[in-house]
TrEMBL record:
Keywords: Heme, Iron, Membrane, Metal-binding, Monooxygenase, Oxidoreductase, Transmembrane, Transmembrane helix
Transmembrane helix keyword on record: yes
Protein name, per record: Cytochrome P450 E-class, group IV
Keyword Transferase: no
Organism of origin: Podospora pseudoanserina
Amino acid sequence: MAQTETLLQTLAAKLPLLLSTAGLLVAVFLAQVLLKGNPLANLPVALDDLPSDEKRRQAFLTRAKDVYATGYKKFKDRVFRIITSNKYHVIIVPPKYLNELKSLPDDTVSFDGAIEQTMHAKYTKLEVGHKLIPHIVKSNLTPSLVRLNPTIAEEVQESFRREMPECDDWTPVNINYKLLRIVAMVSGRVFIGPELSRSEEYVDAAINYTIDLMHARQAVDTMRPWLRPFLANHLPEIKKLNERLAQADAFIRPIVAHRKKLPKEQAPDDMLQWMLDGQSEKFGGEYKTETLARMQLGISFAAIHTTTMTTTNVFYNLAAYPQYVSVLRDEVREVLAQNNNTFTSAALQGMKRLDSFIKETMRIDPAGFAGFQRRVYKPFTLSNGQVIPTDVIIEVPAHALAKDPDVFENPDQFNPWRFYDIRQKAREQGAVEEAAQNQFVSVNPLVLTFGYGRHACPGRFFAANEIKMIIANTILMYDMKLMDGHTQRYPNLEFGLSSIPDPTKELLFKRIEIA
């Protein structure tokens, strides 16, 4: 009996230690099981010096450019992950795997799935995934540009007459706001026809829908992912977007309904009509009027948002580096003189220095810090044996790549003729393909402005032509400079992976004597 009591006392004394040891063993066992089943567990994470994922999420929202750059420099040729505002894990894949990634089928990695996540389509109601739109852009819009370019040029000039002040002396202009209206009218001329593209109702609907959509996206971004299903629809920005969507929808839907009733011989020659004519079972059958109206809004958003941002960035550089304007002006005059003073496709292709200036602008100040975003629906394995699991977003660190000194000489320096020189040297060496790959409109694995692979932006040819026409017309008509007291380019505003030119800034414009 005494021995039993002694044993019980000994066990009681050692019980805390035994329980602690057992708990530790269980924890280690569970950790091993979980780690073994989690392909992400062994991936390094950017900003691993921060104490928590929440700190990393906050860092992403406020300084994402540094997050991508830091991770790229530290891991470079390795796969790593970052903590973002997205509810899905984000895996950064080195650029050297781009050719592998672009070959993966859409049911494995999805471009549309990534857009749904980054634009929070569940809450913003952005129309995503319609196969008809890229088909129409590739089959109708792009082949029609040779025919449409002179018309687009006329619309650019008319929009400038409507929107720009006289500028007989140095005049402050909020060029971002003016460009929103100019791009809306010029794009609308192709998207919805001349009768409607200049109407204030259309311009207001297209512009404000674009602005409110981006504000709503940003508001959802700042909310913790687990709260979004409960609170996102109650955000003021989402409510405002819904109101704007209803207004725009009310304007566009009757137009779509009217077009459906028109005899074929009266059908206009614009993108809305191409969409109506292109409906088939291959592309989802016949769309409801409401869906076509939303698709038209989505096209307007894509065109207005990206084209305005790009062109504003170029204008800020032209004003910050006025020494280059005369060179560009001479080129535009010379090329137009060779093409009957018409903005033909050949004329636009001949503006090689202007092309380089735009491409370098987007290398330095892209719209986003990552490229080739895809949502992973099926696991796949890279050539190095790294398994990429399902339910993650993959990205390529595009901006960090563009600022890599191993890729571009003096990468932090704005060199407007960088790509012009690359193209000229390639031609001299007979490398025609390399010369072509360094055009602004080209898809290039080193500058992911328009994406890469089969889902590269299908509208880039139209956008590039429109941007060139706007800039060329401007430098033929105006001198420009930064506002008094400013000596350096206005810095872009950064939020999450997005970078936008500051829309509140003004530039000074003065009309020049036309030779």
